[in-house]
Amino acid sequence: ITVFYHLCVCVVLSAFRSICGEDGISLGEAVREQHGKDESVHRCCPPDVVVFPHCVEEVSALAKVCHNHHLPIIPFGTGTGLEGGVGALKGGVCFSLRNMDQVLDLHQEDFDVTVEPGVTRKALNAYLRETGLWFPVDPGADASLCGMAATSASGTNAVRYGTMRENVLNLEVVLADGTIIHTAGKGRRPRKTSAGYNLTNLFVGSEGTLGIITKSTLRLYGIPEAMVSAVCSFPSVQAAVDSTVQVLQAGVPIARIEFLDEVMIDACNRFSSLSYPVTPTLFLEFHGSERSVEEQVNLTEDITQSNGGSDFQWARDAETRNSLWKARHDAWYAALALRPGCKAYSTDVCVPLSRLPQIIVETKEDLMENRLTGPIAGHVGDGNFHCLMVVDPSDPEEQHRVHLFTERLARRALAMDGTCTGEHGVGLGKRALLCEEVGHTAINVMQGLKDALDPKNLMNPGKVLKEITNTVF
Ligand SMILES: Cc1cc2nc3c(=O)[nH]c(=O)nc-3n(C[C@H](O)[C@H](O)[C@H](O)COP(=O)(O)OP(=O)(O)OC[C@H]3O[C@@H](n4cnc5c(N)ncnc54)[C@H](O)[C@@H]3O)c2cc1C
Ligand SMILES: *[C@@H]1O[C@H](CO)[C@@H](O)[C@H](O)[C@H]1NC(C)=O
Ligand SMILES: *[C@@H]1O[C@H](CO)[C@@H](O)[C@H](O)[C@H]1NC(C)=O
């Protein structure tokens, strides 16, 4: 067996080298470790080898070799995921896509662009700077856009511009056996279509379990004429969240409405040297023409004041706005700084808007009762919020309490007709919750789709769906 195994390894490695060259493959321990984990608390599972293809033909040829030798394939974007998506649970081959980093086919007049999988959202927006266009989906981290499609990411702008799901028009995908497909037909980018099943949507949120995304065609937006940001403090969580619900019910096309509880704002004040009042707070942003922004602001201020909110603190110039949003995006690191040496785990539930006040209030009570540090930051305009759980990695008892808390929170969201993950994905830790969420019949349909596209179960095995035989965890 060993001789045969070594022979296979040699055959596979030399096939990989002939496809993407000597520097297109790495067996080094440091490189493998770096590709075996993301930003989550899940332990590192390094792949056996990392390949760095340069084009879709190389991705396809590499996949064919893996397919012939039954080797797992794990796509890797920028590794900023929060659910353990890139770990090589059964070893195998990590496909790092960072060498494919070209922006292709910008159609300014049609508001769309196609990107390779190594292009990050900041790189795309830098590329677009002179055009008056931008891509608004913004998870904070500088993630790859195809990785964002793979996890159905969103972030602070989704309340106005939608998530990756609303903003991907077409995908080029390499399947486990090397077949290259274009989910909406090669080169197509209509704004709407009624043509057949929506394969694009099937791959959005598939977390590398159905195929390797090698191109995404994305919607773009005009940079608004006016943008103003504001901060408003509230006497209670209920008042802040009620204001959010009322602003949306009033039809204000708000671009960002982010909630921070008093623990979170305190952490942000310390971490980013700010001095906002330590009470539940909303960070807001309005986009539009000068006049429309003024109208939106007037209406929103009326609503917040009727709920006991403070006067708005303004951020009108780009510099102040950027420092405000930087503070928000640094919330993760601000939370970690509350307890040096600890690790962070972010919960990610999402509920219908009307249930938001109740779930946040109950969750805060639960945190208090169980003596847990979990500052709350939320994309509340979408009904999505995160408890950034700061946990001592050397305290198993505390880890256990956090685990029970996160399960209770997810079930509370399910009981309120919501979801266990608004934007981070299922990855490793939420596979059982996914079954509870969609039910066994829907899970069976998902498994059927997986079997049809990847009959040998090579694509990122052990993620999203529970494996029927090989239980690794
Ligand atoms: C500080 C911080 C804040 C964050 N805030 C947010 C937030 O507000 N909203 C949000 O949605 N997310 C957030 N995230 C999570 C993360 O940025 C997103 O999940 C992002 O979409 C991951 O992209 P990536 O390229 O880093 O993917 P990776 O971590 O490399 O991979 C994630 C998953 O996608 C798969 N994958 C990656 N690329 C491809 C591809 N080309 N084809 C097929 N599968 C692929 C991987 O196999 C894996 O399963 C945050 C992360 C951090 C560290
Ligand atoms: C198909 O799915 C994509 C990605 O989620 C989405 O952007 C697109 O609008 C959908 N198309 C139709 C016709 O619903
Ligand atoms: C906004 O409110 C101010 C002060 O109340 C008022 O002067 C202004 O006309 C309002 N603007 C719009 C566009 O409604």
UniProtKB/TrEMBL annotation:
Keywords: Acetylation, FAD, Flavoprotein, Mitochondrion, Oxidoreductase, Signal, Transit peptide
Domain of life of the source: Eukaryota
GO molecular function: D-lactate dehydrogenase (cytochrome) activity; D-lactate dehydrogenase (NAD+) activity; FAD binding
Reaction(s) catalysed by this chain's protein: (R)-lactate + 2 Fe(III)-[cytochrome c] = 2 Fe(II)-[cytochrome c] + pyruvate + 2 H(+)
GO cellular component entries: mitochondrion
Biological process (GO), any one: lactate catabolic process
Subcellular location: Mitochondrion
Coiled-coil blocks: none
EC number in record: 1.1.2.4
Residues annotated as transmembrane: none
InterPro entries: FAD-bd_oxidored_4_C (IPR004113), FAD-bd_PCMH (IPR016166), FAD-bd_PCMH-like_sf (IPR036318), FAD-bd_PCMH_sub2 (IPR016169), FAD-linked_Oxase-like_C (IPR016164), Oxid_FAD_bind_N (IPR006094), Vanillyl_alc_oxidase_C-sub2 (IPR016171)
UniProt key word Oxidoreductase: yes
Domain (FAD-binding PCMH-type) ranges: 43-223
First and last residue of the signal peptide: 1-21
Matches recorded under Pfam families: FAD-oxidase_C (PF02913), FAD_binding_4 (PF01565)
Cofactor(s) the record lists: FAD
Keyword Transit peptide applies: yes
Family per record: Belongs to the FAD-binding oxidoreductase/transferase type 4 family.
Protein function: Involved in D-lactate, but not L-lactate catabolic process.
Oligomeric and partner information: Interacts with CSRP3.
Name of the molecule in the record: Probable D-lactate dehydrogenase, mitochondrial
Source organism per UniProt: Sparus aurata (Gilthead sea bream)
